[in-house]
Amino acid sequence: MLKEAYSRPISLSDDIAPRVLPFHCHFIKKYGKNFFAWFGPNPMVNIMEPELIRDILLKSNVFQKPPPHPLGKLLVSGLVTLEGERWAKRRKNINPAFHLEKLKNMLPAFHLSCSDMVTKWKMLSVGGSCELDVWPYLENLTGDVISRTAFGSSYEEGRRIFQLQKEQTHLAIQVTMSVYIPGWRFLPTKTNRRMKQISKEVYALLRGIVNKREKAMKAGETANSDLLGILMESNFREIQEHQNNKKIGMSVRDVIEECKLFYLAGQETTSVLLVWTMVLLSEHPNWQARAREEVLQVFGNKKPEADGLNHLKIVTMIFHEVLRLYPPIAMLARAVYKDTQVGDMCFPAGVQVRPPS
Question: What is the rounded CA–CA span in Å between residue 82 and residue 235?
């Protein structure tokens, strides 16, 4: 079904489900919004009723994240794969990196990356206008932004890491879309070997960056204001507050996994959001004009500053609508670890539940 869906050009409608989830759309039409199917050896229940979805998400002790694909773990693990107390501890370590004041300090890096991209576009349109494929530019933009904000002074090393992670993402998608055969990941296939090679190289590069920062912090130097510096400073303080008990904080491997997660959670999702925003604005030029007018009204010819962003009401509404129509993740997955009942439905242990995002 996926092959058939991908064989045709995507239509510029608001409904992307038939292309992204053709299997689910077919069974919803045939059996209704709540249906049961087998995904390989795993029984799966599709849930579409808002009340049931709410109850499932509230019962996080019963409906937990399913175990990741063994090769998928080479791409990322970290916070998104943790549950319970381990998740709470890791979240506590990471939270300071995303404090509003810290994010405000990263705005100049965002502006620099955007300015570089716009300058390239101006050079291509010397006659005043030109036609170009914006997708590769937006991919590079988001990778560039994350490289600057995550690694700061280690920017060039960061770019290399993200290039490798991009390749790893495509390989992981290929693997997870294929039939899963137990033990297959141990065979020295071309894809398996390349994924393991990338994982080792990324780990070595990140280990080098983390070790440099660790030595600098122990020597009394102030931590950098990038994501890695804030994360390490938060972790360092947590360990010190517990009498230098390293079991309380994050290990070097934990820090590396979260750095990999910065890329996965930020790069692809943001570039997809930006390109769909441009598509929708091209379809609705009246909203494009209103958004441009608002930006000029708030900032004029000045560089964007953090406080002004709060006044971009129309731009914010546009982004929210794009996220509603084209969410970065189409469906969630939750595994049932003990027999439970939600509404009038009984779920035995071992079942996977798939609510839409």
Answer: 18
